[in-house]
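Tutorial handout. Part one gives the primary structure; part two gives the three-dimensional structure as C-alpha cells.
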Amino acid sequence: MINLKKAKYPKSSFPLIKIDDLISNKLCDNLKIAIEKQKNFDDLVMNGRNRINKGSFTFKKFLSNSKSANKLYYSLNSQTTFMKILKIFDKNFRNKFWEYKQKNLKFSKINYGNQKGRALTKQNKKNKGKNIVNLDMDFSLSKNGYFREPHRDRSTRIINFLIYLNSIPKKNGGTLEIFKTKKKLVKNSVLYPRFPKKNSLKKINNFQPKKKQGLFFLSSPDSYHGVSKFISKNKVKRVFIYGSFSLNKTVKWFYNPLHG
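Part two.
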C-alpha cells in the first residue's frame, strides 16, 4: 500500500526522509476525490484547513465510504509499518543530535491522541505505565489563506509525516518550510519552545507539495517547520494527509554525545 523504498534525505536540521512515490497514482487520485467530496469535517483550523480526525465519528464514516482511505489507514495503522520507518531513521541518522530513550515500545491500533476542541483521547487501561505507540492522522483539505507559523509538534510525537495528494504550483504558496535555530543548538530539550519567535530561526529548505510524495521526520525538540500562506488561485485546494506515530506520554529526548 505504501512504498518505503527509494527514500531520499534532503537538507534539514533534523532527520527528514522524502519519498516521491509513496503511494500509487490511482490511490492518490481516489483519496483526493474522496476528501474533496466530503461535506462534513471535524473542524476548521489554521486559517482554512478542514480536517477529518482519527477517533471521530466523521473519520469512521469516511473510512466506511472510501475503500481507498480505509486501505491506507490500515496500512499505516500497523506496528510493522512503524518499525520499518523507524529502521530507516536508525540506519541513516545514527549520529542525530537527539535520541528518544523510551524502550520496549509496543503498538496499539486503538489508541489515539487529542485534537483541538475535541476530547478524542482513547487509552487502554491495561497499557497504563507502558510505552505505547499509536497512529494519529487526519485527512485534510486546505482552502485559501491556510498557513502555519514555525513550530514543532506535540511533545507526545515520535515521527511526523505528510502525504501530498496533489501538486501545488509554487505561485500558490502552501510550501512546507524547514527551519533551524540561529543560535547554536543547546543540549537541554526543555529550552526549545514549541512556538519560537520567527526572528530566532533561519529557513534552510522548502518543499512544494507534490502528488504522491511522502515526508517523514523525527519530532525532536528542534524539528521546527511551518507552511507559507496558501493562495487558492483557480480554485486549487491543498489536499493532504497529516499524521504521526505518537507515544501515550511525553517523549523524552536526550542529547546524543556521539553527534558530530
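Part three, for discussion. The first strand starts at residue 16 and ends at 19. The helical segments are 25-37, 57-65, 67-76, 79-92.
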